[in-house]
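Weekly puzzle thread! Below is a chain. First person to post its structure in token form gets bragging rights.
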Amino acid sequence: MQIIKRIGITLVWIAGLVFLFAGINNNDPYLVPLRGTGNLLLVLASVAAVVVLVRRGFWRGRGWMGRLLTVLWCLPPVAVLAAHGTFEFRKHRVLQTEPALARSLGQHFIVGYTSFDEVARLAEKGLIAGVYVTRHNVAGRTAEALKAEIAALQARRRSAGLPPLIVAADQEGGIVSHLAPPLTRLPALATLADLAPEQQRAKAEAFGRIHGQELASLGVNHNFAPVLDLRPDTARNRLDFNTLIGQRAISDDPAKVAAIASAYIHGLESAGVQATVKHFPGLGRVRADTHHFSADLDTPLGELEATDWRPFREVLSASNARLMVGHVAVDAVDPERPASHSKAVIDGLIRKQWSYQGIVMTDDLVMGAIYQHDVCTAVVEALNAGVDLLLVAYDGAQFYRLFACASDAAGRNALDSAILHDSETRLRRGLIVD
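Winning reply:
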């Protein structure tokens, strides 16, 4: 009986520490499911635990260990309150940003959202360049409802005298069809890889045209597709839990990837929707999932240029596609930081060696490979490297933290004004689509 009681008390200690950890890290993207009702339940459970401990004599009759355990269970609600206060203070600071600075920095951010009123306020103030719509924006809703919401956002934007919003989505086909339903769920482009070349191109262009027309009908003007990563050897990607690039990559043949992707982009662009190719420098050889872990490419540059990077160069040179850069370090170029915020990769390789002067954007900065490290440094380095757009997709609430990082850097003159000027020129030249 004593053993059972000791095990029970040990579990109460562990649970208290878990609750405290959740409270302290309440703003972390991994704890998004706790927000709202989850936080209320956490606080109520903590209060209930304190009441039970006091009634069972832990405060008065169990010595200092009993009091310490009771205090431990008092802390999670305090931690939740402190985390919420930190978030609200940061949000207030961002919303009070001086208008010129808000528009200067805001043109670099695309955010996911759950609250129309909140994102409309960001749009009106020029604090963001665009929004990202995904599954939770269409869940239980009709296409007409989403279309009306996007139109309302654009109307708010126009009334503030600002350029139209970028409205972006992930509608690749296959397992990444975030707006289907209500849109059509098309097969992945990988299903075309075994067709004859002429059939490949015709089908891929048709897929692009369908996606483009349906997205444009909602008011979506950017599609984060197609994927240009080469299909990986599955034995190398055992830690690919969320990206699932093996199911999304078109082929392991660079020529097929380039041909199918180019045709798809042509169809997409014919409907007035911009394509964004991803995820440079390629995820096919990466052993870890950047949603959670740091990752690197240790392949020689010559081999990457001849294989993994061939589709990127061919497609970018033959289309108006944008380029999404992932959170993978290229050891031969910059082993110290992911490509998404590496000046050696963005400015040195992509801009100078490849002569690509189109729009470059990051993959989601809320992913573990970036967020669980020094995300503030990543934001500043990305802007100073010549990245044009910073994506905050999975947890749009992190925008306030990331914008504050950029704003603080601007305040201490840590942003490269020449690089930002060049980026603004690129954005004005070709980014905004009405």
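Puzzle host: Confirmed. Bonus trivia for everyone else. The chain has 17 helices and twelve strands.
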